[in-house]
Amino acid sequence: MTLEFSPKRIIVTGGAGFIGSNFVHWVVQNEPDVQVTVLDKLTYAGNRANLEGIPEDRLTFVEGDICDAVLVDSLFADADAVVHFAAESHNDNSIADPSSFVRTNVEGTYTLLEAARKNGVRFHHVSTDEVYGDLALDDPTRFTEETPYHPSSPYSSTKAASDLLVRAWHRTYGLPITISNCSNNYGPRQHVEKFIPRQITNILSGLRPKLYGDGLNVRDWIHVDDHSSAVWTILTKGRLGETYLIGANGEKSNLEVLREILVAMGKEPDDFDWVKDRPGHDRRYAIDATKLMTELGWAPEHTDFVTGLHDVIGWYRDNEPWWRVDKTEIEANYAKAEH
Ligand code: NAD
Ligand code: DAU
């Protein structure tokens, strides 16, 4: 029987990014006794504005690199736990140039693990279902914690490497760790490079949405707030050394999702362009979250995808200055790759 862990001072790496910032908002709203320190390099994907509205007495923001061992060590001296979201996160970027992925995702995770070991800090590692590779469209199985690692892209292989480092630090040094591997998130504040925000902001910009390949690739969508509640559950109730998969039975083809967006935004369902496929494009992801649900009692709350998608479309309509600054450059990069 594992006793519940009650951290009071947590470090959130990557807390100015999409999922990290939603997690920080979730913790501040739901856990009144917890102080949060965000460590974020503010790369193109990080935005200080993502943390607006959080009371100053609940949050300390540190702009810095997770590869900076001196900085990381000084922060960890005063923390109970780290929740590690910081990463280079976009597959297409990793195909164009993998270097920052190896540095941040592998060397950065190593740097954090060493600081955690030195300072006795509990470590929750946020990872992805992509470490398991992909499934065929007609495969009746889904990923479980027992599925062998088989990553496809530079991004997912660096995430797999980081997971293995975390496991090794537990087995070799006894570092108190947990790992979660989650499926595709959607929600507010997701960068315009990603699939759902790109299509919504294309339509809002008078551009046609872009679908890769045959559009039949399947992703298993989960609302970002459900990812946050799952991570908190694993951090506070999970068994040390264990991996938990996070998912909400949200499998949909990219074509289905795109048509939902088009219809919701008053367009014709075929009002989009087919574009060049992603090299090595994973066909299907699907998560079996039975372990998390039965062992730790977690369940997703935002299970109506269409309602969630309407809310997200509303968020991008209402927050044009937030995404407009990045849009032109992102589309120019996609055009170069014929995406
Ligand atoms: P994101 O790209 O939106 O945010 C990443 C954040 O990390 C940014 O704020 C960025 O500034 C920061 N960062 C990058 N390099 C850094 C460095 N060297 N030092 C400090 N900060 C740095 O990513 P996201 O989509 O929010 O993903 C967050 C985490 O969740 C990642 O670890 C990703 O692998 C994982 N994940 C994402 C999804 C998804 O659907 N997006 C699903 C499962 C797991
Ligand atoms: O599964 C979890 C992973 O989900 C996370 O680990 C990654 O950080 C996150 O980026 C996401 O990876 P994907 O590659 O699945 O997400 P992306 O938004 O890039 O693409 C989703 C699907 O949509 C994928 O099959 C490619 C396709 N796509 C993407 C874009 C940007 C398009 O068809 N058109 C597009 O314009």
Describe this structure as you would to a colleague.
This protein is α/β, with parallel strands linked by helices and 339 residues long. It is built from eleven helices and 13 strands. It has helices at residues 18-30, 69-76, 91-96, 99-119, 154-173, 195-204, 224-237, 254-264, 290-296, 305-318, 320-336, and strands at 9-13, 35-40, 59-63, 81-84, 122-128, 177-182, 185-186, 210-212, 218-220, 222-223, 243-246, 251-253, 273-275. The strands form four sheets. The protein has a seven-stranded parallel β-sheet, with helices on both faces. Helix 2 (69-76) packs parallel to helix 4 (99-119), helix 4 packs parallel to helix 5 (154-173) and helix 6 (195-204) packs parallel to helix 8. The termini are far apart. The model has no long low-confidence stretch (mean pLDDT 98). It binds nicotinamide-adenine-dinucleotide and 2'deoxy-thymidine-5'-diphospho-alpha-D-glucose. Nicotinamide-adenine-dinucleotide is lined by residues 13-14, 16-20, 40-43, 45-46, 65-67, 85-89, 104, 108, 126, 128, 159, 182, 184-185, 191.
